[in-house]
Amino acid sequence: MTAGQHDQDGEVEPSALTPTAIYRPGQRPAAPASPGPVLPTPGTGQPPTQPTDAAPPPAPLVFSVGDIPGLRPRWRRGDGGEVAGDDVVLVDSLDRATWQVVAAWLRDSASVATRRTRLQVLAAFLRWLKTLKPPVALLEVSEDHLIAYRDAAATGTLAVGVRTPGKPLGPATLAKQRANLSSLFRYARRRKVIAHNPAADIHTPAVSRRGTTPAMTREETLQLREGISRLASSQPGRAAAVALLAGIGARVGALPALTVGDIRTVLDDDGREHVTVQFRNKGGEKEALPLSGLALQTLQPLIVGRPASALLFTKADGRPIDRDWVNAGLTAAAIAGGIPRERAQSFTPHWLRTTVITELLEDDVAPDVVQKIALHQSVDTTMRYNRRRTALKEHQLYDLEQRREAGRQQSQRAEEG
Questions:
Q1: What is the four-CA torsion angle of 102, 280, 263, 379, rounded to 10 degrees?
Q2: Rounded to an integer, what distance in angstroms lies between the CA atom of residue 308 and that of residue 264?
Q3: What is the pLDDT of residues 334-344, one digit of tens each?
Q4: What sign has the CA pseudo-torsion 116, 117, 119, 120?
Q5: 390 band by pLDDT with thresholds 50, 70 and 90
């Protein structure tokens, strides 16, 4: 951007060239950029040092993290917000230099789902930092601070930043915390704001290789399909959303951003036409999955005659949908299909994803193929849904015993003959 130009959020300082950056809410750059930001030296008490090859500071793009796509603050249920408003306020209250790094890091991810996870994890960590005596600034965190935070989370002694104080967090949650905080400090180090990543060598408990979210039974999936068909006449949007999740096992977090243009017809190598839906995976890359059957049938009314830029799913008042909206549709469809109300109310959108992945594995689809369908970054994640591997009725020791018994009976018949 050249001198004197304006962007959509505010004026650029007229006497300076300003490459990429993000400034704290409500503030404009008051002077030309310095050679580089200052390096705090975490936990040493030593004065900061100035790097000679620091990355350029950010230029104003947003003035609140709530302005970053996917991070619209939610103040009350159903107001169209996407993340907790208190989390946005907490991050926006950081000092200017820290806020710049955090806001740029949040926006650095191309995935809306990842941005939301990053904000949630960071806000919880910031609340814990405020309880320390004396409080510790985010960019002055040391490895010892992170170890203390991990141990507090693992033992249930966290009193802030958790849904249920006093309840230990599981290995998967601890791993998510560590991964996201390490990502932040790694980004700050890349921008030469800190000298090293204090989370680089933090270890967390091994995550179980067995998934905990149950899958629906085959009978329940048939009942749900019937319920979706019945729901389509009165709530076509919700029916289509549930059918899409039940048909291809997509993440529910991907639905709010889908547009009509994401449903498209493509030609295969053999010249056949296929209707696909295009998603962004967690890495921000676009992936297309084929649509057929009930999912395609229920989506058709939402596509015909609408512009490609229109949101595929919206609430009755035109606002974007959220997880609660989808969950209500899932419950309604399950009940309409004859599933008992108490059981139907226990279903969550992730059950649909779990069911699709589980059924594919049970039908002997190759794990690497299922990985691509599920948009998993690692096949290890996919194999957590392999119920046959962990079900005792399928245990290999039973097979061993049956083979031995069959061999004994065969030998016995040979001797008698």
A1: -150
A2: 10
A3: 999 999 999 99
A4: positive
A5: low
